[in-house]
Design goal:
535 residues, alpha+beta, 5-stranded mixed β-sheet, 4-stranded mixed β-sheet
């Protein structure tokens, strides 16, 4: 919902609540039909989300007192600990890779990046211990940072993937910086690939979009000899970190802390997805991705079912994931993680920094429940999580005092996210003067921070599914089975959302047995044919 509201805002459309109904404002002549359709399609979810924001923290972040160093935010502190292991640190490299075709103005590109470095203190921040052995963040001046773009003027297509892989898997020195690096690889005179990488400790998914958007604006304006008009930044990330740490014990966050502790009372569930492989004793990050496009007809039918249930697309996809996990594990108490932007304050909208928070969604159900009932449970769990989203996940982990298991993530091993495709499409379609820009389509090194990561997107009315899986936990065949099963569950619940979860699982098991029988028969027939041909 945050991304949709931002898309509407970017198109001068305002959405507010009026007696539990939507009030739409627009400063232009007519609202584009595509956006009207999106508002109608997501009406129930918008009403619920805006309603939940009535309970949000009403806060203003003051500028921090000037100092040589500043505290880390809760998420930064935990990520710093994780990043002391080099393999874990590499897992938190966040890349943006774009293909440029046309005449690229190098001077304008350098100007754009240097302006970004000056504009966002987070891009000039390093992390090291002070004299009291406390990890603090230090902000360098642009001159001290010594940032520069790396160029390789002649890179063949064969070498390109190797070069990109090397950059993606190169660790950052959090104490020395800079924690952003930029490479430009030329494949011929008018074709090149831009690779920029930030460490997650200074960035998040929203920040990648901001960096790309502002980079293109700065490049375009400089290339055309005019000044870019970027919104001023009243505060910087250090101000947020100081505010957050000083707010942890206030009354509102204390209430939110109690809610989350209540959610994770009792014995916590541990999911075991590995079947053909033995889980490594130390968590690994080796990954691969498998994708599937859900055809537009099925996608449309799913959205209709969810509208009838007054649920959002994210809630529906999440409920299907829970059904899939139940089918494969038999678990009826499941925790999955999902990100939330963490930018309720308007001053944070255009910031680059690690603002994202994690929502740990614990959903308890019964195999005798219908999918519709599960969807209702998921809706309640999700809306409650939105309402209490301000309490930092990393503080929750410390408060729960969970015994560390080096083979797993803390609390959950499955991640679910609904990506914002609008912002990405705007980046690649806009004109920046001369070059044409598209997202890089080549193979990228896949790092899997979880056993499973379900990444969904809704593009031009079609739902796309991408599953990142840890190759030390699941085989390629098991991953393929999961994405097949996901689509099968989707098809089943569209036809009859009142089916019990147990019945859905049994239907799928019978279907899988039948397909396995057909496969064996085909193999036998093929073998008989080969024998006859030899005779």
């Amino acid at each position: 919902m945050e991304y949709l509201l931002k898309e509407l805002k970017d198109n001068n459309i305002t959405i507010s609540l009026n007696n539990n109904d939507l009030k739409v404002g627009f400063s232009g002549k007519t609202i584009p039909e595509a956006l009207i359709a999106k508002i109608k399609e997501n009406k129930n979810a918008l009403v619920e989300y805006l309603g939940s924001l009535n309970h949000k923290l009403d806060f203003e972040i003051d500028k921090a007192t000037v100092s040589d160093n500043y505290p880390l935010s809760s998420s930064q502190r935990r990520l710093w600990v994780l990043s002391q292991d080099e393999s874990a640190s590499i897992a938190y490299n966040m890349p943006g890779i774009y293909f440029f075709e046309g005449n690229l103005n190098i001077i304008s590109l350098e100007y754009a990046f240097n302006t970004l470095i000056n504009r966002h203190e987070s891009l000039r921040t390093v992390f090291r211990e002070d004299e009291n052995e406390l990890v603090r963040q230090y902000i360098y001046s642009p001159e001290k940072l010594q940032f520069s773009i790396s160029y390789q003027k002649t890179v063949t297509e064969e070498d390109l993937q190797k070069c990109i892989h090397n950059e993606l898997t190169k660790p950052f020195d959090l104490a020395a910086g800079p924690l952003i690096r930029v490479n430009l690889f030329n494949t011929d005179d008018k074709k090149c690939v831009l690779v920029y990488i930030m460490h997650h400790i200074i960035s998040d998914g929203w920040s990648l979009n901001i960096l790309t958007s502002e980079l293109l604006s700065l490049y375009e304006s400089h290339n055309q000899g005019r000044q870019a008009l970027l919104p001023p930044l009243r505060i910087q990330y250090k101000d947020y970190a100081v505010w957050q740490q000083s707010s942890l014990n206030n009354e509102i966050l204390s209430v939110q802390k109690k809610y989350w502790l209540k959610q994770f009372e009792g014995k916590l569930p541990v999911m075991e997805l590995a079947k053909s492989k033995i889980r490594p004793k130390i968590r690994t990050y080796s990954g691969k991705t498998i994708t599937r496009e859900i055809n537009s007809d099925l996608s449309k039918e799913l959205k209709i079912v969810l509208q009838q249930q007054s649920s959002s697309l994210f809630m529906g996809l999440l409920a299907i994931v829970y059904t899939l996990l139940y089918k494969n594990t038999g678990d009826e108490d499941i925790i999955v993680g999902s990100p939330i932007a963490g930018r309720e304050n308007i001053d944070l909208e255009n910031q680059i920094g690690f603002y994202a928070n994690t929502l740990a969604l614990r959903t308890q159900f019964n195999r005798e429940d219908s999918f519709s009932k599960l969807l209702g449970i998921v809706k309640r769990v999700t809306m409650n999580a939105f309402e209490f989203q301000h309490y930092p996940f990393d503080e929750l982990i410390e408060a729960l005092s969970i015994m560390r298991d080096t083979s797993r993530n803390v609390l959950f091993d499955v991640w679910v996210v609904l990506h914002n495709t609008v912002m990405k499409k705007n980046m690649t379609k806009r004109s920046v003067g001369l070059p044409e820009i598209t997202g890089y389509q080549g193979d990228q090194h896949v790092i899997s921070k979880f056993d499973l990561l379900f990444g969904f997107s809704d593009t031009d009315g079609q739902i796309n599914v991408a599953i990142d899986y840890n190759t030390d936990i699941l085989s390629h065949k098991e991953a393929e089975n999961l994405i097949d099963q996901f689509e099968k569950i989707l098809t089943i619940i569209i036809k009859n959302p009142s089916l019990k979860l147990l019945d859905i699982a049994q239907m799928m098991n019978e279907d899988e047995k039948e397909r396995q029988k057909e496969h064996l028969q085909n193999v036998r027939m093929k073998n008989l044919t080969n024998l006859k041909n030899r005779g």
